[in-house]
User: Which sequence fits this backbone?
């Protein structure tokens, strides 16, 4: 059994409902004078996968809409677990490929650098003209 196979088996086991970490988030927003009640947002997620989110408005926070939304979200998550597992396996595969690419040296052909040095052209400088240009540059830098 290869490491990749054992990693995929462990990942698959963690996406079985009995072994899957599940997180619920419930947020009840402040009153906004709506006749339908306060806005309620409930999200569910497994592992670090994207959440499934539902929202509604209600004034009944105990026995009414919240348990119903939780049941709906849980059923939806259970139905999505196989698809979420496939996405997790693909993310894991891509991460392994990227990690291998960082470790392996770059095997692409690079152009060879020329070992011969190019000679620079000889430039003759008129000393008097250089002093004038240098003085003008100094003026521009100081007063410009």
Assistant:
């Amino acid at each position: 059994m290869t490491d990749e196979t054992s990693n995929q088996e462990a990942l698959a086991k963690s996406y079985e409902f009995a072994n899957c970490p599940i997180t619920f988030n419930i947020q009840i927003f402040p009153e906004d004078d709506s006749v339908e009640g306060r806005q309620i947002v409930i999200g569910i997620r497994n592992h670090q996968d994207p959440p499934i989110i539902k929202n509604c408005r209600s004034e009944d926070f105990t026995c009414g809409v919240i348990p119903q939304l939780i049941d709906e979200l849980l059923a939806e998550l259970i139905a999505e677990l196989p698809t979420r597992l496939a996405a997790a396996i693909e993310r894991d595969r891509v991460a392994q490929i990227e990690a291998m690419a960082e470790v392996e040296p770059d095997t692409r052909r690079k152009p060879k650098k020329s070992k011969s040095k190019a000679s620079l052209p000889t430039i003759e400088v008129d000393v008097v003209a250089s002093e004038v240009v240098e003085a003008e540059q100094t003026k521009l830098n100081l007063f410009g």
In short: The chain has a mean pLDDT of 80.
